[in-house]
Protein 1
Amino acid sequence: MQYALVLQADRLEPGALAEVAHILDAPAPTLDAPGLARFENADPAQRDRVATFCEARNWDAAFVPATTRWEDLGLLVSDMDSTLITIECIDEIAAMQGLKAQVAAITERSMRGEIDFTASLKARVALLEGLEESALDTVYRERLQLTPGAETLLAHCRAHGVKFMLVSGGFTFFTERLKAELGLDYAFANELEVANGRLTGRVTGEIVDARAKRTLLMQVREALGLAAAQVIAMGDGANDLEMLAEAGVGIAFHAKPVVCRQADVAIRHGGLDRVIGLFA
């Protein structure tokens, strides 16, 4: 497979681009915008040297399949918490119980892959027992924000006929509202059990964990009649690794180290609009 190297930053200095060309032993790149450059026929064996050079300048560097462009894609699969949105919803819900620090510590360990996701989810949700359901609405209205570049990316997907699937180890209360508000094509998540207007401390149905995320991606891909190469996926936590591996291109977005190491691409500095430049 042939690869292209895509560089993205607020500004790419010509002299530094020439140094990257020297590392690659390649011609000068195509400059699609002041902050976007693409080297064709780039050697992925130089990935580590390029990454070290670019990271020192806060550039995002990605080796992507050379022939994959937006016109070829059919589905973008995204995690929700700390990917499509800036917060971890469960941590903000816990804040309503005065337990944010305790729950956030478990969340962090889970996202790093240090503890089992399903066990950690059940433990965190149990701490929410007795909280009024209205607290979820407060989190949605007052604390939830889209990640910079999200709306631009969604508009780009619609313009190119690429379906957008939100799949989360979080909760349907948030995914369903985002689906309606943003016009998403698919949304999957865990459902919090509620009784008499209060959280019971349990979730209902099958847990959306790493394996479930991968399975849901495969089911939607098959329903749309797409090949694996026509699917891209993005996420930040260890529970996203299986779905990132199943996609044609898996993108670690401001992700935990274990995810950055295993994903095809890592976006560490820019917003979600940088996903657009990968396949422009």
Protein 2
Amino acid sequence: MDIEALRTLLAFVETGSFTRAGLQIHRTQSAISMQMKKLEQELGKTLFIKHGRNLVLSAEGLLLARDAKQLVHLHDQSVLNIKQPKQRLMLRLGCPDDYAKRVLPDVVALLHQEFSNLELSISTASSIVLREQLDQGLLDLAIVTRAPNSEEGYLLQTAQGVWLKHPQFKLKPEHSLPIVVFQKDCKFHQAAVEGLLKLSQPFHIVANCASASVLNGIVDHGLAITAMADISQSQYAEQIKAPFLPALPSIAIVLISALHPLNPISSAQAKQLSERYQTLVNKKDA
């Protein structure tokens, strides 16, 4: 079997679509379709089936994807060993500002435990931007909020959405509540705004931005309340529950890995990293 065909199959598994898979491995959607048809013909099996409007893996496709992970990992590791036997491994890691204080440090520590010759380049952006950068080959690994109705990436931890305010901030529900929120692509923005509207609670948006540091700064100065994940909470803020504030959803924070062959971190290693992270978090919570 062609190793690149297996890589394409894994790209589909990781991204959930031929479109995003094509972006990651730099192929057109039609080229991917032809490649997968050729693989099906070679094996004499149907690898994809229709599920509503979407394509999903058949039982045979799932079996092949399981084995393909090991085969592609061994291939890529051999290429790295030959091409970069003594060089430092350069890894480009992306992380939203929300998780820079509580999630990122542990991921960095685990990476350096695994790779003594690793050199990290870290950038921050929203989860949506990080996914785009990963697809464009600008990142090797990213910590993101899992997209709704998907199983992307490898779970690091879950976090609960909470309302926050400065301890001296006086809530006055009879007046318009000043809120500061993440941008519209954030799950908490939608939940906060739509929830307040459904409760007929007057509010006004003081500011919206992509940075948890900015949101926390505004809250810490008593200028507004906010909705964010509990792990992003400032040490100066307090959580609030009130009948005029809507409940907020929980989120899944995951690790996603680019599928280009020179990525220092394979999908199998990304999965192992997520498992070690979960073990670490569980020990802290015990």
